[in-house]
Design goal:
- This protein is mostly helical.
- The protein has one domain: Four Helix Bundle (Hemerythrin (Met), subunit A) (Up-down Bundle).
- The chain contains eight helices and no strands.
- Helix 2 runs antiparallel to helix 3, helix 3 runs antiparallel to helix 4 and helix 4 packs across helix 6.
- The longest helix is centred in the N-terminal third of the chain and has 24 residues.
- It is globular, with a radius of gyration of 18 Å.
Amino acid sequence: MMLMITIFWEGRSKMNLPNKITIIRVIAVPFFVVLFNLNYAFPAAILFCIASATDALDGYIARKRGLVTNFGKIMDPLADKIIVIAAFILLVQSGKIPGWMIIVILAREFIVAGLRTVAAVDGIVIAAGIWGKLKTATQMLAIPFLIVDNWPFEMIGIPVDQILLWLCVALTVISGIEYIYKNRRIFLKGGI
């Protein structure tokens, strides 16, 4: 096991640094789930924050060093979705957010993923729009506050977690509409 980790991290694998960071983000998900389920809210929130920060880091390194790969283009947004959706499912399971919100978020993710898949068949890459980027950033900001029950803002009565949660839902709907509208030709071409 240690040999595999050494080969993976020290560069004897063919995977570049940004892609390694993305893979580490995916590997962090089970640890996040365990921490959350053991009611270690602060460690779970910290791990989520670290994983979220690596999202910006791997993209920055890839662009800055010219290390953008097809693997990274696919895995980076997928890694984001895996940890965000895992967090939202855990938050619904624990009663911290209503189930309908995760249904709205998941529906948007499946619609956009389907749209991207149809586009990819024709060699079209659908880049994230500004609303999609804002949605992801808001989700990654809201989730830690939801995990730790709005700490430290609950002490002064400001529901930052709920404000961010509702903003997530609004941006989810707006970004979903944006993706569909901007890429409607893909739907029309497919006869939908």
